[in-house]
Amino acid sequence: MRIIVAYIVAVMLSARAQAVDVDWKMYGFVPNQSAYCFYDANGITRTSNRVRVWTKCLLQKDLDGLDIKGELGGKIVENAARKLVSNYVPPYAMIEDINYDQATVIIQYEETANLSHIQPSARFFYELNCSERMIQILSTYVRVNGKEGFSEKPSGWQHVPPEGAGAALLKMLCR
Which CATH architecture has domain 25-173? Predict the structure, then answer.
């Protein structure tokens, strides 16, 4: 029995440690789905002129529906307040002019993405070719109306239009 309890505690601590290892940064909004999209700043890999990054999109209703009075909500508010006091500016400010109130909401959403277990409506693993301004999707997960779809088949390289999610990622991650 002790072995089982120790195993459960170890798994829980491992899952919690993994959640802390991510640092989700907002890079866009999908209006037709009312979803905010984030990239994992800690998981970025760079090789010569290419960048690989995991992203996820969370529905606004899920982000706003989180109970901020509970323990998790308190931690989110505490972390967001700490960032505001230290003059943290979300990377999203690189692509869009934002005011203090907008920055506050973005920071809260980033912390919610970091700490909550909200099921993403979409998850993509992108590879960016910075010098050629091209992008390909290496892995895709999408959930719509309770149905899920998943693919590990690369999409193939595509040129990035001047606006949209791909353009935002290029601007933020290809310096």
Answer: Beta Barrel (2.40)
